[in-house]
Design goal:
The structure is a homodimer.
Chain A (H helix, E strand, L loop, with lengths): L8 H19 L6 H8 L13 H21 L7 H17 L2 H9 L6 H28 L7 H13 L13 H15 L4
Helix pairs in contact in A: 1-2, 1-5, 3-5, 3-6, 4-6, 4-8, 6-7
The structure holds a DNA duplex.
DNA sequence: GTCTATACCGCGATAGAC
DNA sequence: GTCTATCGCGGTATAGAC
């Protein structure tokens, strides 16, 4: 008969992360106290410090995990023939992936200014990596003449802003299914860059 | 010989508003203290309460003033013949107006969740009014067949997200002049809605 | 691993002198 | 109109019992 671990032992860490993410998304990092997070999890405030050295690191870990998951999921997409097909794949992936992670997306965008400089730089680099993958598609399209893009950098930022904007209004069970939304946005994206 | 007013008297109010706007934009409403605002203005914390009943009202007043200025400036645009011309006018106006007020735009978007319910509703209504003016253009274009828009509501939100996104990267004196940026975005907008 | 208790600080807001 | 001083609260983080 070995030791019996407290059943909540290794579920506490993810529960802290989930509670923190939800509360940060809802009220903002600065407005949420460690006491609130602890209460949501059902532990005392001091217990949180067994799982994170401080509040700032908790925020950073959440944002970093989100960005890494985004990069990994995008990298795992099946290869795609042709620039226009790759652009459609990116468009649909971006909408689908972000819609399924509304809290993480919101926090990772809104709380950038609350990151300490070194942490900010790390997250920014990951975001930039993701943007570069879209810009690479647009540049290929420009080179081979299958897209009309006046400025690939601006087009990249414009498209990502447009696509991420879906998160400000999309709710599951609303007027339109996610597949329909993807289709409508793909139509606008395709036209915006003069594809087809 | 009348009373001599303290020279700083009626400049204190705008200076408080400017300091608060700048600090809220940089660090977030919840992260900024009344003491910080006071320090920036060069008065004691208690003095702020001569000009605002509380911190929440200060935030709300800043956001409301920004939204009202936006609606007024848009309403003052010269009348425009034709749907496509109106859309171009809106596009250029939106970019120009928002680029010149980066702090107010940022605060008005990021701090919505820190508004008390009644204040939130008031700001949301103004934002909705502005969106409706763009949607009206798109609907007119759809009716007369000069635009191709699969869903006017989604297209409205997509275009506004795209245009407001300029504020995340545009800085005066950068690679591109604002007029050039306007032109590039108008090109993308025009194509996205199938105009011309 | 979680608890209670607490150190230490800074917050929003107010009172009353000048 | 601005100041100093302060109230009462809640913040992050830590110490030490169990």
């Amino acid at each position: 008969m070995g030791r019996t671990k407290n059943s909540s032992a290794e579920t506490t860490r993810p529960r802290i992360r989930e509670a923190a993410l939800r509360l940060f998304a809802r009220h903002g990092y600065a407005a949420v106290s460690m006491r609130q997070i602890a209460k949501e999890v059902g532990v005392q405030a001091g217990t949180l410090y067994l799982y994170t050295p401080d509040k700032q690191t908790l925020l950073f870990d959440l944002m970093q995990a989100h960005m890494q998951e985004l990069l990994d999921a995008h990298a795992a997409l099946p290869p795609c023939p042709g620039v226009v097909a790759r652009l459609e794949q990116f468009t649909r992936f971006h909408i689908r992936h972000h819609a399924a992670r509304a809290d993480a997306v919101f926090v990772s965008y809104m709380e950038l200014r609350n990151l300490e400089p070194a942490n900010f730089a790390a997250i920014e680099a990951m975001r930039r990596t993701y943007e570069d993958r879209l810009e690479a598609i647009l540049r290929d399209g420009l080179t081979q003449g299958s897209l009309h893009v006046p400025d690939t950098k601006l087009a990249t930022l414009a498209l990502i802003a447009m696509l991420t904007g879906v998160n400000t209004w999309y709710r599951e069970g609303g007027r339109l299914s996610l597949a329909t939304v993807e289709g409508i946005y793909w139509d606008m994206v395709r036209r915006a860059v003069g594809a087809g």
